Amino acid sequence: MRKQLTKLSLLLFLAYFVSNLVTDALAQRPSGGQLQNRIQKFESQRGSKVLITANEVSYDNELGSIIARGNVEIVQEKRILRADSISYNQKTDTVSASGNISLLEPSGEVLFAEFIELKDQFKNGVIKEMRILLTDKSRFAAREATRQDGDRLVMNRAVYSPCEICKKDPQRAPLWQLKAGQIVHHQTDKEITYRNAFLEFYGVPIAYTPYFSHPDPTVHRRSGFLSPNFGSGGNLGGFIQTPFYLVIDEDKDLTVSPIYTLDEGIVFDGEYRQRFTQGELRLAGSATSADRQEGDPSNPQTKRNEFRGHLEAFGRYDINKTWRIGMDIERATDRTYLRRFNFFEPNGNSLTQHVFLEGFRKRNYAALNLYAFQDLRTSSEGQTEQPYIAPSLDFNHVGESDHFGGRVGLDANFRHLGRSDGPTGQRIYLTPGYKISRTADLGFVTSLSTDLRTDLYHSDQTSTPRVNAETQDGFAYRLMPRMKADWRLPLVRNTDISTQLIEPIAGFIITRNGGNTTDIPDEDSKVFESDDSNLFSMDRLPGLDRVESGQRGIYGIKFGLFGQNFGRNTAFIGQTYRFNNDDELVTNHNINQGFSDIVGRIDINPQEYIDLLYRFRVEHGTFKPRRNEFTFTVGPKAFKISGDYIFVDNGTSSGSLSRREEIKASVSSQITQFWSIRGSTHRDLNKGGGSLSHSISLRYEDECFDFDLTGTRSFIRDADITPSDSLLFRFIFKHLGQVSTNAG
């Protein structure tokens, strides 16, 4: 929630400060008289030190008055009051200050005025030509202000604006301001109200309201309307969203954001948040009644006025120093709802529901996880029945260093995977291991690790379709003793301007052949991708259902160039050699005997304005590209180009057998200090692919105003998502905080 802004309560202090200060000073003077060009020190009745500096100070005990003239400065603790003259009449209970008045608060707010007079125990008074500069640089100004009943500050013919004054022409109207016949600060209620207020842009009135209110800056949260969002086009035909923020208590709030759409009526959207002493909770969701399409994508069936919606839940709670619970849940009524109604783009082809309990203690980690999944692919692409995991139990342990410098480790897992109508099974995984490393006097680093991979499975594959067609019901087990040795020699050359690195790396892994029997269903290891990140892993396959068997050698070389004039630049290239085949891995995971594809990475970051990352995979014999990824950001804010290019050849990974080639690119420019523009495109470069989306946005942002105009053209077609054009507007008047409006 945005911070509330208007700080007027400092005026309360002015009356109290001057009266307490001057009466204490008068009470401690033994007799009347005049003293010039002197600094006077006193101690107030509260015990705080008071310092008065003035060209001339006069005392009259008979009249009960004190007058300070000429460059008057009064300092008490961290408050400073300056004026041309200050007087206090004890008999009439009146304090007045005149000429170039400024009051600096410890919090940073500053009050300026030409004349102040307060009486009636300083509950009432008048202030002429008042100006207030707040800590967020916003300002109040009024020709005249009155203090009433010690609780209200009434400003007549007043102006509020957070915009900075033009230095070249201070009389020029700010970008926007609120000009009102009357502005009232209710200090007890911490509320600021406006009567007959005009919103002006560059001095030109564009909107009027008879009554307007918002909390003062001491209020960090207050119920009210937030800035609306609105746009036209898209799959909704246009929309406007009007969020309302509701403070329930100090630790919880609710935002209700109904969306009014032209094509689909009202969509109810909301978010609930709560903070705990040891955790937090966020719940969000939406609901509507709208048409939707389902069935065969080539011949979809339309259902009228169906309930559609989604749910998001995020939570964390620390039970104690060891244990915490949490959840990360995303769920929608159907696979196209989130994209059609512009809530968020799903990460991948599914939505995940995850609830967990986990503990951390020294070098031990334990967790209980519950998973469910919602497939967002078309029925022809995905399985008819998604699995659930309830539970998955994990334990990981790394022991203390022993006498030889090695460490014992243990990884364990139990998983129950089920379906309401489909194959189910249980898995027990246990891998004890040991690892030791050495650094030789010659500089090379070696490490040796060994473990015993143990798996026990129970499968019930009677349902159709099966995960593996040949998998039989019953128990299956796997024992895989494994050993890995690796060696590296970092060669470093330092000069006055750079550091250069060449590091050859080699490794060897020994384990038994086979082990991937068809009696073990493959539920979590289907998608395999060989790249620089997993080249030296004991097992490159994801998940636990499949294991990389046999013997293989690994080798590569790393390069580096570092320095103030060179930035940070690294490169790596490597390859493996397998001595045997695993028929199951060849068929389903593209892991062949002999030399693997060559993989590598080049990361170039020579300066602030250049950041290039290239990752590749090429066929070892022909050097034909199998996978290319290129991410780049070039240029300063004045003109910046960035993008992502990806190419994946046919059959490169078991999870994506078809060729894929696409690019995302954007160009942005900070045209001036306040204006910027950005354009982007997303294209499918496969034959017959074409454009997926284009967008262009124009933005203005300064210290007091934010304006966004974004136009998007989408070419995506999927069920009830059709190609469309959209235009989105956003206006934010900064520092107004959470706004509430009433007719008055």
- Averaging pLDDT over every residue, what do you get? 85
Low-confidence stretches: 1-13, 21-33, 42-46, 738-744
Q: Could you estimate the helical fraction of the residues in percent?
A: under 10%
First-residue to last-residue Cα separation: 26 Å
Beta fraction of the residues? over 45%
Number of helices: 3
The main pleated sheet reads as: 26 strands, antiparallel, barrel
The CATH superfamily of the domain at 10-220 appears as Lipopolysaccharide (LPS) transport protein A like domain
CATH level 1 class label of the domain at 10-220:
Mainly Beta
Structural class label = mainly beta
Overall strand count: 44
Return the CATH topology of the domain at 10-220: lipopolysaccharide transport protein A fold
Shape: elongated
Task: Characterize the structure shown.
With 744 residues, the chain is mainly beta. Among the domains are: 10-220, Lipopolysaccharide (LPS) transport protein A like domain (lipopolysaccharide transport protein A fold, Sandwich), CATH 2.60.450.10; 402-578, no CATH class. The chain is 4% helix and 59% strand. The strands form 2 sheets. It has a 26-stranded antiparallel β-barrel. The longest helix is centred in the N-terminal third of the chain and has 18 residues, at 10-27. It is elongated, with a radius of gyration of 36 Å.
